[in-house]
Amino acid sequence: MTEESKTKTAEAALSQLLQLMATLRDPDKGCPWDREQTFATIAPYTLEEAYEVADAIAREDFTELKGELGDLLFQVVFYCQMASEQGRFGFADVAQAMSDKLLRRHPHVFADGQYVSHAELHRQWEQRKAEERASKQTGSGTEPSLLDDVPLALPALARSQKIQKRAASAGFDWPDADAVVSKLHEELDELAAARAAGDADAMEDEFGDLLFTCVNLSRHLQLNSEAALRRATDKFSRRFRLVEQLARQQGEAVADLGPDRLEQLWQQAKLQVDLQGSPQTKLSTKP
User: Fold this and answer.
1) Cβ neighbours of residue 26 under 8 Å, at least 6 residues apart?
2) pTM higher than 0.85 for the full model?
3) Per-residue pLDDT tens digits for 100-131
4) What tens digit of pLDDT does each residue of 196-221 get?
5) How far lies 258's CA from each of 19, 125, 255, 269, in Å?
6) I need a labelling partner for 13 at 20 to 30 A (CA). Which of 36, 177, 248, 262 fits?
7) Of the candidates 245, 210, 230, 258, which has an alpha carbon nearest to the alpha carbon of residue 155?
8) CA gyration radius for the chain?
9) Of residues 250, 252, 228, 243, the one with CA closest to residue 273
10) E strand residue ranges, the chain
């Protein structure tokens, strides 16, 4: 299939999807559920669909990924239909705005812009984004900030890392990872003091500072804090499922085991997981 025919096929499929969405929202013959939705009611579904896309990618299930991307695209189409009904914008406006942004941010590809290194390319990219943020704030009459447009709805770790990265771009940062490790010990001491005082509010505050510093350390180590925690959680889940399985094989229930027996099974599970990698497939075939 030529690129031209692929484009025509994509245009036809998208045109059909847009028409279907318009029909679903039709006041007379549309779907009652679709007609009653608003931007606010659809937003939670959008987050859910985005996570399902990420999950399919993590599992490398590309058959499912195709479907999940379709679900996510449907969210975009849904928003555009509602906005069109209110005379705000349509799908074409969204697509054009995205094209304009890509052209503006990639002069080294689409224009005569030059760069000498990936670091310089990244610097130019961040500079253009900063200019765009400043332009938006100028239009709204408010003072611009480097932290503008960091979504409140981001997961806490991801939002923390993004905010720290923005601040670091202005030079507001620890000099190196060792300095962050020292701060980590300081935050642990402050949390211990709050615990000793029995102050629940102070404990929450200090624990938040501890997490924030952990995110800072991940950034200095060039790690993604969200991905690192997800990896640790998945690892724990694999090990705990194996603990449950080992207990069942010996006629035991995890909830009935004492600390010593649980530790014994946990160490056994850790060893098996480390030897096997991810045992999920094998576990699923056993009773």
Assistant:
1) 35
2) no
3) 989 988 888 888 777 778 777 777 777 777 77
4) 999 999 999 999 999 999 999 999 99
5) 61, 56, 8, 16
6) 36
7) 230
8) 25
9) 243
10) none
